[in-house]
Predict the 3D structure of the following.
Amino acid sequence: DEDIIKTYADDGERYSKNHDKRYQFHRDHSFWPCQVLNRETEDTYTVRILQSPFEKDQPWKKNDVPRLLVNFSLQGIRFFVKPYKSDQHIKDAFRHPIGIPDEMFPEQWKTG
């Protein structure tokens, strides 16, 4: 693994600036999927960048080599729950109605 990182990895710090300004919404496709491979420090990681389904194939994808970044800031990583994989979709999840008496709510909040 160390040889692969030495051969293919770039310093991720140069990609770690202004993440909050670039990423606004999941739907704007401004992210690149990645796999977190290693936690280096409290705030930096080694990640493998994956080909974005919204961009044309990159040279590293075409040449079948990994795109690795070391020293990549946690601020540049966003975690998404895959569709239908959140806890609410667990087959045997505990579900029970929560009975809240109507008297607990002000009359102004109640609508016909």
